[in-house]
Amino acid sequence: MFEEKVISNEIWDAHLIIKNLYNRNVSDTELFQRYFDFTCKVANWDMELETRSYFLDEASTALVVYTENAVIDAEQLMIIHQCRETIDNIRNNMYSVQNLNEQQYTQQVEANNHTILKDLVDLKGLLSRTVTQEEFDQNLLVLTEKENVLIKEELTNDQTLLYNNLTKEYSVLISDKLSQFAKASNTEYNRKAVRDFKYVIDAFKKEEGAYTKSSSKLYALVSSRLFVFDPARLFNETLIYYNHIYSYIFSKLDEEGKFKLTQIAIDTEKSAQ
């Protein structure tokens, strides 16, 4: 049955059978030799190291058991020495393969990290040239994706130095860019505010009588164009213009009108756009 399993490449079943046979006859030289040769043969195959290591450990354990139970004479001593040499040779071969795999892994990781770092350098230049917030946000997503696949613990000394410098440069760049976009956004916000303020004063002066007599008409004018802007986002120059217009309209209203205007200013929801 063991031979049949070996021929049909049912290695795990073959191992089970021959191990069972040997464990029931631990001093049998022939069974030991067959079991030992089989496990060493599998341990020598070109396959994953985990399986090779398992079968080599099985061979090593079998040798220990055989050594403890066999009747030792010159012939048996020679067999034991040969078996130990076989195990040492296979183990050295496995170490060589493992070292080679580790070297290849290290080289591959270093190459991949090099490519990613180069991409990060290129992306920094792209970010610095970005002119819109939308494009900037998209590039930041790419930056995050790139950094997430960088294997930082495997960086070489030179790569670590470059990465640390990039991290500092990116921090400054992103901060500066966000400030630029915020300033540009606030500038446009103030331009719109000034345009709306002018519309309010022009419309009020044109129909001053109608606005001072109708609180609903005045509400429609000032709530959507004068009081809708957030003072925290307005420049000093814009606030001065706002105060001028507010003071002018306020001075034209009677006591009830002044109260209504103040109430509208308080209750109007401020727009962030």
Strand content: under 5%
Note poorly predicted spans.
Answer: none
Helix-strand pattern, N to C? HHHHHHHHHHH
How much is the average pLDDT?
90
Total DSSP E strands:
0
Provide a count of the helices. Answer: 11
Helix content: over 70%
- Span between N and C termini? 82 Å
Which overall shape is indicated by the principal axes computed on the Cα atoms? Answer: rod-shaped
Largest sheet: none
Category from helices, strands and their pairing: mainly alpha
Computed over alpha carbons, the radius of gyration is 42 Å
Structure description:
With 273 residues, the chain is mainly alpha-helical. The chain has helices at 2-7, 11-23, 29-43, 49-69, 74-129, 133-148, 157-206, 208-213, 215-225, 236-251, 255-267. α4 (49-69) runs antiparallel to α5 and α7 runs parallel beside α10 (236-251). The two termini are 82 Å apart.
Short synopsis of the structure:
This protein is mainly alpha-helical. It contains eleven helices and no strands.
Salient structural properties:
single chain; 273 residues; mainly alpha; 11 helices
Give the secondary structure arrangement, pairings included.
Elements: H1 2-7, H2 11-23, H3 29-43, H4 49-69, H5 74-129, H6 133-148, H7 157-206, H8 208-213, H9 215-225, H10 236-251, H11 255-267
